[in-house]
Automatic annotation (TrEMBL):
Protein name: Nicotinate-nucleotide--dimethylbenzimidazole phosphoribosyltransferase
Origin superkingdom: Bacteria
Functional summary from the UniProt entry: Catalyzes the synthesis of alpha-ribazole-5'-phosphate from nicotinate mononucleotide (NAMN) and 5,6-dimethylbenzimidazole (DMB).
Keyword Hydrolase: no
A Pfam family assignment: DBI_PRT
Catalysis performed (reactions): 5,6-dimethylbenzimidazole + nicotinate beta-D-ribonucleotide = alpha-ribazole 5'-phosphate + nicotinate + H(+)
Enzyme class: transferase
Alphabetical GO biological process terms: cobalamin biosynthetic process
Active site per database record: E319
SUPFAM superfamilies, per database record: Nicotinate mononucleotide:5,6-dimethylbenzimidazole phosphoribosyltransferase (CobT)
UniProt-listed Enzyme Commission number(s): 2.4.2.21
Keyword list, A-Z: Cobalamin biosynthesis, Glycosyltransferase, Transferase
Length: 354
């Protein structure tokens, strides 16, 4: 059995008894019922995943998966592919947006190279999981082979397992870096939503109207040529996806198999989560949508997954920045559930009863 099949077999339903107990405690806390809004179901879901009411999220890691995209040669990004590797060095040096926001949230950052078009020194402090140097141009053929797609997913599973084993993992955040990857992510949501590309494509790093038109046409060409079948998620990943997107799918499956909650970042991380859920729908119960990205297709992905984002700050950066910020909210959820006293505990009559 493959690592992917094994991991999918280990994904179980989170503890529904704990969920009921959590919802009961939240409903009995000394405050108007439902007054903490969406924090309440989030807190209950966290408890059910972790199997306890007093959830501890001490060990947080954000894994930023990096990969390059052959489709960049069509002019779909404002930036050249070289920026992917340059940003990997920036992450390692600690000077990027994700380093700052992860530190603020008490999370470690690990950068994983799934497919950057650059040879990193083996001594560089990243997770060396390169499958190949960038995908092929999906507008002229499949982005990668099915074997490479499966290898990228299994690399992500391996990373989740590695982190869960040492140093231990209570909450996993996902993030991405890859010039051109909003094109691949938009292609994936086009396959699953069936919506016209004009509605789905966004500016990525900052395309203007003319650039958006070109991007939609390039994706249309890739879809017409590769004919990805939504019933075959690994095929979709191989034909129009990306190596880091496969890694992101694997992270979700790996964490879910270890009963670890995952908080996703924006468009690209959610594209990975979408592939994970198509491979194994039960994985969706372990996912929190960190935020709603400004990038147009993200809303459709969230709808497809049935997820409501924790935050909407009009961000469109990637790297895991939205996941890092949402970690503050998930931390708050654990405190809300465990520490707010019930009517009974503080001796106030509960007007909701009797
Ligand atoms: O996370 C998002 O929602 C998001 C939205 C727009 C852009 N990005 C980032 O921008 C890069 C891809 O943009 P592009 O235009 O090259 O496809 C990639 O490194 C992503 O992390 C990320
Ligand atoms: C500079 C830069 C930083 C990024 N971080 C995520 N995507 C990015 C794209 C660019 C271009």
């Amino acid at each position: 059995m493959t690592l992917l099949e094994q991991s999918i077999q280990h994904i179980t339903q989170p503890d529904q008894e704990i969920k009921s107990a959590a919802l009961k405690r939240l409903a009995n806390q000394a405050r108007p019922r439902g007054s903490l809004g969406r924090l309440e179901p989030a807190a209950a879901r966290l408890a059910s995943i972790c199997g306890r009411l007093d959830v501890k999220l001490d060990r947080k890691t954000i894994v930023t998966c990096a990969g390059d995209h052959g489709v960049v040669e069509e002019g779909v990004s404002l930036f050249p592919s070289e920026v992917t590797a340059q940003m990997v060095y920036n992450f390692v040096q600690g000077g990027a947006s994700i380093n700052v926001l992860a530190a603020h949230a008490g999370a470690r950052v690990r950068v994983a190279d799934l497919g950057v078009s650059h040879d990193f020194d083996p001594g560089l402090d990243i997770l060396h999981k390169k499958i190949r140097k960038g995908t092929a141009n999906m507008a002229t053929g499949p982005a990668m082979t099915r074997e490479e797609a499966a290898a990228s997913v299994e690399a992500g599973i391996g990373i989740a397992n590695q982190l869960a084993d040492s140093p231990g993992l209570d909450l996993l955040g996902t993030g991405d870096m890859g010039i051109g990857n909003t094109t691949a992510s938009s292609a994936i949501i086009a396959v699953y939503s069936g919506l016209p590309l004009k509605e789905l494509v966004g500016p990525g790093t900052g395309l203007d109207e003319q650039g958006l038109d070109l991007k939609a046409r390039v994706i249309k060409r890739a879809l017409d040529l590769n004919r990805p079948d939504p019933a075959d998620p690994m095929g979709v990943l191989a034909r129009v996806g990306g190596l880091e997107i496969g890694g992101l799918a694997g992270l979700v499956i790996g964490a879910a198999a270890r009963q670890i909650p995952v908080v996703c970042d924006g468009l690209i991380s959610t594209a990975g989560a979408l592939i994970a859920c198509e491979l194994c729908p039960a994985a969706g119960q372990y996912i929190f949508a960190g935020h709603r990205s400004r990038e147009t297709g993200h809303e459709y992905m969230l709808r497809h997954l049935g997820l409501t984002p924790l935050l909407d700050l009009e961000m469109r950066l990637g790297e895991g920045t939205g996941a890092a910020l949402a970690m503050h909210i998930l931390d708050a959820c654990t405190r809300i559930l465990a520490d707010i006293k019930t009517f009974e505990e503080v001796g106030i009559e509960n007007a909701h009863e009797g």
